[in-house]
Amino acid sequence: MTKRTVFSGIQPTGSLHIGNYLGALRNWVDLQNDYDTIYCVVDMHATTVPYDPQELHQSRVLTAKLLMAVGVDPSRSLLYFQSQVPQHAELSWILGSMTPLGALNRMTQYKEKAERAGQMLGLYSYPVLMAADIMVHKAHAVPVGDDQTQHLELTRDLAERFNNRFGYTFPVPDQITPKRGARIMSLQDPTAKMSKSDDDPRGAVLLLDSADTIVKKFKSAVTDSEREVRYDREKKAGISNLLDIPSIHTSKPVADLVDEYVDAGYGDFKVAVAEAVVEGLAPIRNEYNALDDAEVSRIMARGALDARTRAEQEMADVRTKVGLGA
Ligand code: ATP
Ligand code: LTN
After folding, report:
1. Ligand 1 centre from 20 Cα, in Å?
2. Looking only at Cα atoms, what is the longest distance across the chain?
3. 23 touches ligand 2 (CB under 6 Å)
4. Residue 250 binned pLDDT confidence (cut-offs 50, 70, 90)
5. Measured between alpha carbons, how far is 227 from 245 in angstroms, rounded to an integer?
6. pLDDT above 90 for 306
7. Which candidate, 10, 6, 123, 23, places its Cα nearest to that of 64?
8. Which residues, including other chains, have CB under 8 Å from residue 1's CB and lie 6 or more apart?
9. 113 an active-site residue?
10. What are phi and psi of 316, to 5 degrees?
């Protein structure tokens, strides 16, 4: 039986953090065992907010290396840069003609980002390009954190609209989000998600942060004015986040951690969490340091070649169906 296809993307907007890792990338790695997996560094999405071209160029390779370091294996997954496969942009244009503005107006991520980046067409149509990323490979499932749910809903809607109008073409893709870890919160504001673009760099723990930096970030984590280590997402969002992070990392149940640290005091508890994270990230950092930039670029170029061949097959079919065939 042919395997089902999984697709996901990540923006090369700076170093990745443990939210990206626990919410999405761990699933990317695990899914390689059972699915036909396609992973993409979505560099065109990164141009939808103000950016520096040189930084973007470096961030693409950094992101590709980090993906390989966490366990995305180019011999098992197709891995490439979005901009090197122009069929993504082509399908995005076709889908744009089927996207009601009302759907884009509802996107909370657009509203948040437009406040900082300005109301630009690229940012506005970002979710259409994301739908095209997924659909150009006829993906069945998409591993992402829960902040992407609205975007996935639009993708499903566009797949259905296209199929209804032009005949069955695209699977309606499922979202794959982990039961725990789908939303890791900022260490500085436990009511907001951990984010690369957080104004306060202490809010996000980066996969390549040194042990010292990780300990400092956890020590400065915002908690509450009580003393008891207890899990309560509503009333104790900060402490609950600090329990979730090592629990997901080490697969140790939260209840065991609570038993261990209930009377420890927040200071000792934070250091223990930091140490668990430092230990968990050490293999990723070692893998990262062992990778060679030139080799990574070669792997990405090969990935793009294969991805273009696959995407072109799908687009030939799409062009014919919409009346733009040869
Ligand atoms: P930004 O916040 O600057 O938009 P980001 O940190 O959300 O960036 P993305 O490249 O947009 O990073 O996300 C990559 C993947 O990581 C997505 O699947 C997203 O859902 C997931 N993700 C991002 N932040 C978190 C988080 N705090 N908890 C769990 N998953 C997350
Ligand atoms: N919007 C996503 C990144 C992204 C993506 C995709 C994820 C772009 N295209 C296709 C899954 C599938 C984000 O900001 N995390």
Report:
1. 5
2. 72
3. no
4. confident
5. 19
6. yes
7. 10
8. none
9. yes
10. -60, -40
Q: What is the mean pLDDT of residues 22-38?
A: 96
Structure tokens at 188: 């500085």
Output DSSP code: residue 36: E
What the chain holds in terms of domains, given with CATH numbers, is 5-181+292-322 (3.40.50.620), 201-288 (1.10.240.10)
186-215: average pLDDT: 93
Q: pLDDT category, 62, cuts 50, 70, 90?
A: very high
**Which residue type occupies 285?**
R
Beta strands in the chain (DSSP E): 5-10, 36-41, 77-81, 141-143, 174-176
Mean pLDDT over residues 48-68, rounded? 96
Mean pLDDT of 180-184: 90
List the 5-10 sheet strands across, edge first: 77-81, 36-41, 5-10, 141-143, 174-176
pTM of this structure? 0.95
The answer to whether residue 196 is catalytic is yes
Q: Choose the residue to mutate in 67, 133, 147, 148 for probing ligand 1, maximizing ligand atoms within 8 Å of C-beta.
A: 147
Atom of ligand 1 nearest to the CA of 144: 18
Q: What average pLDDT does the chain have?
A: 96
CA of 326 to the centre of ligand 1 (A): 40
Instruction: Give the Å distance between the CA of 253 and the centre of ligand 2.
Output: 30
Q: Which residue has the higher pLDDT, 172 or 264?
A: 172
